[in-house]
Design brief:
The protein has 40 residues and is mainly alpha-helical. The protein is 85% helix and 0% strand. The chain has two helices and no strands.
Length: 40
């Protein structure tokens, strides 16, 4: 699923886009965890 290092060197923009997409995917989970922790 993750790009190989050689792909990152050839297509840095694609690697950056993948990282940004991963961050956007994780953000809601982090927010949910924070709210759950606060609720306890």
């Amino acid at each position: 699923m993750f790009a190989q290092p050689k792909d990152d060197i050839r297509c840095p923009n694609m690697a950056i886009a993948m990282v940004e997409a991963t961050v956007e995917t994780v953000k809601p989970s982090v927010q949910m965890i924070k709210e759950t922790t606060r609720a306890k």
